[in-house]
Amino acid sequence: MIRNLDIGTLRAFLLIAGGHSFAETAGLVGRSPSAISLQIQRLEAEIGAKVLRRNNREVALTLPGERLLGLARRLVQANDEAVQAFRPASAPSAPLRFGTTQDFAEAALPDVLRRFSLEHPGVDLVLRVDRSAKLIEAVHGGELDLAVAIRRDDPLARDVLVELPMLWIGRDAGSDGPTDPLRLALFEAPCTFRSAALDALGAAGRTYKLSFTSPSLSGLRSAALAGLGVTVRTKHMLGAGLADVAGRLGLPDLPSVAFAFYAAADGHTTACEDLAELCRRALAAGE
C-alpha cells in the first residue's frame, strides 16, 4: 500500500527541526500546538518511527528524524516549486531580502550564494551588508526577510548559527612584544567587538590608545596590516599578513561571540530555512 506524506506536516517538522518550539511552529503555520503535535504523531505513524525526542527542556531529532530531514526538505521544496511553476506570470514571487555582517560577507558569502542559487534557481536575492544593529532593525521594520547578525536578546532572534572566540588580530611580522599603551584599531561605537576589547583591557589594567577607527572591515584590516593597531574580530579575519597576537603581546582573554539568524514571524519559507542552513554550515566550517 502506497502512503502519501502530508506536505503541511513535513513543513511543520522542518520548523521544529530548525529549533522552533511547538507553540512557535503553530503560530507560523496558523494552527494550534495540539494540532501540530497530532501532525507529528501521524507522521511518525506513517513512517513507522519516532522522529522527535521530547522532554521538559528541549526537542531533539532522533536518528530516523535526522534521516527524514533531508528528504523532507526536498519534498517541501518540490511542492513549492510545482506551485510556483503554475502561478500566473503577472504575479511573480517576491525576492528574498537577506542581510549579513561584513565579516560573514567577506569570509563565506560568495560560496553560500552560489550554493543557494543552485538549490533555488527561481528565487531572487536582494542582499544588504551592514552592521548587526542595523540589520536587526531592518528585519523589525520589514526591510529584510532574513539576517545573519550577532546574537542579542531580541524577539526575532532564531537559531544560534555558531559561537566563535574573539581574537586579538594584528600584523604577523616582527618580534614586537607587549607595548604600553596598546594601540587599537576598532569599529566606531556601538560595537560588540569594541566593547569586549575595552572591557578586557580595563579588567586587566592594561593601558591603551585608540589609534584608528573605521566603519568598515576593510579599513580595520588595512590598519592592522599597516601596524597601526591591533583589532578584535573572529578567525574569519585571519589571512595573509594577519595573526592572533594575544600570546605575543600578552593580551587578556576575550569572550566568544554568537551569531544568529533573525526573521519575522511570517518569514519562514523553505528558501529562507535553506539559506539559514547554508549560513550555519559556512560559519561553522573549520570551527
Task: Report what the structure shows.
The model has no long low-confidence stretch (mean pLDDT about 85). About 45% of the residues lie in helices and about 20% in strands. It is elongated. Strands 4-3-5-12-6 form a 5-stranded mixed beta sheet, with helices on both faces. It has a 3-stranded antiparallel beta sheet with strand order 10-7-11. Strands 1-2 form a two-stranded antiparallel sheet. It has helices at about 5-15, 20-30, 35-45, 65-85, 100-105, 110-120, 130-140, 190-205, 215-225, 245-250, 270-285; strands at about 50-55, 60, 95-100, 125-130, 145-150, 155-165, 165-170, 180-185, 210-215, 230-235, 240-245, 255-265. By secondary structure, the chain is α/β, with parallel strands linked by helices.
Tally of structural domains = 3
CATH topology of the largest domain: D-Maltodextrin-Binding Protein, domain 2
Mean pLDDT: 84
Q: Can you tell me the overall shape? A: elongated
Number of helices: 11
What portion of residues belong to β-strands? 15-25%
Radius of gyration: 22 Å
Give the helix/strand class: alpha/beta
Which key features would you list for this structure?
287 residues; alpha/beta; Arc Repressor Mutant, subunit A; D-Maltodextrin-Binding Protein, domain 2; 3 domains; 5-stranded mixed sheet; 3-stranded antiparallel sheet; 12 strands; 22% strand
In short:
This protein has 287 residues and is an alpha/beta fold. It contains eleven helices and twelve strands. It folds into three domains: 79 residues, Arc Repressor Mutant, subunit A, CATH 1.10.10.10; 87 residues, Periplasmic binding protein-like II (D-Maltodextrin-Binding Protein, domain 2, 3-Layer(aba) Sandwich); 88 residues, D-Maltodextrin-Binding Protein, domain 2 (3-Layer(aba) Sandwich), CATH 3.40.190.10.
